[in-house]
Specification:
Blueprint lengths: L1 E2 L2 E8 L7 E5 L8 E2 L1 E2 L5 E8 L4 E7 L2 E3 L6 E3 L5 E5 L11 E3 L5 E3 L6 E7 L6 E5 L8 E2 L1 E2 L5 E7 L5 E7 L2 E3 L6 E3 L5 E5 L4 H10 L7 E3 L1
Parallel strand pairs: 17-22
Antiparallel strand pairs: 1-11, 2-6, 3-4, 3-7, 5-6, 7-8, 7-10, 9-10, 11-12, 13-17, 14-15, 14-18, 16-17, 18-19, 18-21, 20-21
Length: 218
């Protein structure tokens, strides 16, 4: 059967004087939803099965306060917060599938084809980002304002899978109720793009005239 290239990542808060610790990051859309487990020595730990081909930003909620651990790798995020991070492999998410053979070994398939998939925000706001599974929910992809005041962006991703996404509009998370949307597994409301064939996505790009200014490589 097909399965993602996942592996266990163990996150730790090694300090023993706190009464509660939660983990949050790209993997739970920064909802502070993951309760860590207290260890016998008083430290805190949690193991998650995550995509091993991408990087993960994370922080902790310690006794109700956002924290990062300066003893672990950290950096400034694109929105200027200080986050811890773990590094994945050199490939981006969703680049490869594995096929599990009967003897338990794995055969790597060819990289999935990518083409431009277009997202739009049809309202005249000051600044709009589109964010989703394709950028790890980092709000890292600024959209381009068109002449009519609306916003659009073509993102180079696999069109044959469904993509959850949202918008950061003038600094606020939101979704477009005029587009398909649903509740995610963690209870947030996301827009989603239904899967299409590769050929359908290419045809849509041709109709739009291959506007260079809206291409984004992830």
């Amino acid at each position: 059967m097909f399965k993602k290239a996942v592996k266990p990542f163990t996150f730790t808060w090694p300090y023993t004087h706190n009464w509660n610790a939660k983990l949050t990051g790209d993997f739970d859309q920064w909802t502070r939803s993951l309760q860590m487990n207290r260890q016998a020595d008083g430290s805190w730990s949690l193991t998650l099965d995550l995509d091993s081909t991408r990087d993960w930003d994370f922080k902790f909620e310690i006794d109700g306060e956002w924290q990062y651990d300066s003893a672990q790798p950290f950096h400034y995020s694109r929105i200027k917060t200080i986050n811890n991070f773990v590094l994945g492999g050199p490939l981006g998410p969703e680049d490869f599938d594995e096929y599990e053979n009967e003897d338990g070994t794995f055969t790597y398939l060819e990289p999935k084809p990518r083409t431009l998939v277009y997202f739009n925000w049809p309202y005249p706001n000051k600044l709009v980002h589109v964010t989703g599974k394709f950028d790890g929910w980092r709000r890292s992809v600024p959209m381009n304002k068109l002449e009519d005041g609306t916003w659009e962006l073509g993102v180079n991703i696999d069109p044959t899978r469904e993509w959850d996404y949202k918008f950061d509009v003038d600094g606020e998370w939101t979704y477009d109720s005029a587009k398909p949307y649903h509740l995610s597994l963690i209870g947030s409301t996301n827009n989603y793009r239904e899967a299409t064939t590769f050929e359908e996505a290419v045809e849509e790009t041709k109709k739009r005239g291959l506007r260079d200014e809206v291409k984004v490589e992830l």
